[in-house]
Automatic annotation (TrEMBL):
CDD domains for the chain: AAA (cd00009)
Any one Pfam family match given in the protein's UniProt record, by short name: IstB_IS21
Positions of the AAA+ ATPase domain: 93-225
Name of the protein: AAA family ATPase
Keyword Transit peptide: no
One annotated GO molecular function: ATP binding
Alphabetized InterPro entries for the sequence: AAA+_ATPase, DNAC/IstB-like, IstB, IstB_ATP-bd, P-loop_NTPase
NCBIfam families: IS21_help_AAA
Family: Belongs to the IS21/IS1162 putative ATP-binding protein family.
Keywords: ATP-binding, Nucleotide-binding
One of the protein's GO biological processes: DNA replication
Organism: Sulfobacillus benefaciens
Gene3D superfamilies on file: P-loop containing nucleotide triphosphate hydrolases (3.40.50.300)
Length: 288
């Protein structure tokens, strides 16, 4: 029995077969019940091994599910909508997910939760910050292996890119990022977080026209979650007494963050060339 299980690569069946056979005889299980139970145990063990190994390969910064997300603290998020996104129909359709909002509101935990759900459904996932991504592509470019390296970022059906807008990109890095977005367009899903509104992406990528071209490909097939709330980290520090009243979210001073939500895409002529221009509805978020 053990030899056959080894040949068929059924380690869980090999581990349980003898003891469960004794239990089956004592409790008068049918043969089909016994067989179904040991095969179910093997299936469950395989799924567990798959999730563990592929979660490690995805390089997630932490492991938190949607059930651990405090929706009560972020009322701007529709919990039913977020849970609908967990069906991953948008990944099946090679669409994108963009999560916008100020620092600390839970953008990264949301895409990590989506990534964990995708792994559980055996969807290949990879997580990376945009700074690490462009640094890797820059190194590949310098080593004359850019095309090969770019191809590796096309393999995951879900590529999660964190912290878009945290730091501006130089021109070459921005163009290489555009190459990646273009190559994945309608071929694989992107889940991105950004603390910048779309109106600020021209500064992030150093070129408004390039930023518009990137947004055109990202937004065309996408779901946009705009979190307008307070920082979890600041809340925990206030609870611990590490911050005074001056650090409260609405204590006065500072400037509210604005996040642009795309309404429509239009074309306009400017200085002899045709450029894409965005029309935005401005959404005012809570102050940090």
């Amino acid at each position: 029995m053990a030899v056959l299980c080894e040949r068929l690569k059924l380690p869980e069946v090999a581990r349980l077969a003898a003891s469960w056979a004794q239990q089956a005889a004592a409790e008068h299980w049918t043969y089909s019940q016994y067989l179904a139970d040991v095969l179910q145990a093997e299936t469950t063990a395989r799924q567990t091994r798959y999730v563990v190994s592929h979660t490690q390969m995805a390089h997630l910064p932490f492991h938190k599910t949607v059930d651990q997300f405090d929706f009560a603290f972020q009322p701007s998020l529709d919990e039913r909508h977020v849970r609908q996104l967990l069906t991953l129909q948008w990944v099946d359709a090679a669409e994108n997910l963009m999560v916008l909002g100020p620092p600390g509101v839970g953008k990264t935990p949301l895409i990590v939760a989506m990534a964990l759900q995708a792994i559980a459904q055996r969807i290949p996932v990879y997580f990376i910050t945009i700074q690490d991504l462009v640094a890797d592509l820059r190194k590949a470019w310098e080593d004359n292996r850019f095309t090969t390296r770019l191809g590796q970022y096309l393999r995951p059906r879900l590529l999660c890119i964190d912290e878009v807008g945290y730091l501006p990109l130089n021109t070459l890095d921005a163009h290489r990022f555009f190459r990646l977005v273009s190559a994945r367009y309608e071929r694989g899903s992107l889940a991105l977080t950004s603390n910048k509104g779309f109106v600020d992406w021209g500064h992030v990528f150093g070129d408004p026209v390039l930023a518009t071209a990137i947004l055109d490909r990202l937004v065309y097939h996408s779901t946009i979650l705009n979190i307008r709330g307070d920082s979890y980290r600041l809340r925990e520090k206030r609870r611990a007494g590490m911050l005074g009243e001056a650090a409260a979210p609405h204590a006065g001073g500072g400037t509210p963050m604005t996040v642009g939500v795309p309404v429509r895409l239009k074309r306009r002529a400017d200085d002899g060339f045709c450029a894409l221009a965005w029309s935005f509805r401005t959404v005012i978020n809570h102050r940090l």
